[in-house]
Specification:
Helix 1 packs antiparallel against helix 5. The N and C termini lie far apart (about 35 Å). The longest helix is centred in the first third of the chain and has 15 residues. It is built from six helices and eight strands. It is globular. The protein has one domain. The strands form three sheets. A three-stranded antiparallel β-sheet has the order 1-2-3. Strands 4-7-8 form a three-stranded antiparallel β-sheet, with no helix packed on it. It is α+β, with helices and mostly antiparallel strands.
């Protein structure tokens, strides 16, 4: 993977995406992403959830919610300074409850494989997205990408298969309207 250019506006998002991969590599495979654009299209949001977590629990843990509007105030971090993906993975792990840690450590090789393939497929600084204010990639059956300098606005969107299983169903049901 390319080095993260910390001066890039997407550097915090890139760090977050790679931190999730670092957690997967450590065997913490039930941490999953739910990425989307906010309603104005001005910020990319990424919720981290633990597969099997109830909607109420996931939404109550604001430490696992993040937006590009927050800059370097990443999940589990107190400051606004850049951190490495490995440091961020440590910080995310530190804010989980004991029950969340237990559930997050359950194997999910299908999701971990899918996530690794997603990171390999996307181009540097493209941000995966399930939906945005003027359309839903999810409802069309795929994951799309935002902020792509590699795509003309007239070309069809780059696509990637949806994650395996149904762990994101409650998020989709909540945000699809």
């Amino acid at each position: 993977m390319e080095r993260i250019d910390i001066a890039s506006p997407n550097a915090p998002a890139e760090t977050l995406l790679r931190a999730v991969k670092a957690l997967h590599d450590r065997g913490i495979q039930r941490i999953q992403i739910f990425p989307y654009m906010n309603s104005s299209g001005s910020a990319w949001r990424c919720c981290l959830q633990i597969d099997g977590q109830s909607a109420e629990l996931a939404e109550s843990n604001s430490a696992l919610l993040w937006s590009t509007a927050a800059g370097w105030k990443l999940p589990g971090c107190c400051g606004e300074s850049p951190v490495s993906p490995e440091e961020l993975a440590d910080n995310i792990w530190s804010v989980l409850t004991d029950d969340e840690k237990r559930r997050a450590q359950q194997p999910d090789p299908a999701y971990a494989f899918w996530y690794s393939a997603l990171l390999d497929y996307r181009k540097y600084e493209e941000l995966p997205s399930l939906f945005r204010d003027y359309g839903s990639y999810y409802s069309e059956g795929y994951m799309g990408f935002e902020n792509s300098p590699h795509q003309s606005k007239f070309s069809p969107p780059r696509r990637f298969p949806l994650p395996p299983g149904n762990s994101l169903t409650w998020f989709i049901d909540k945000y699809k309207n």
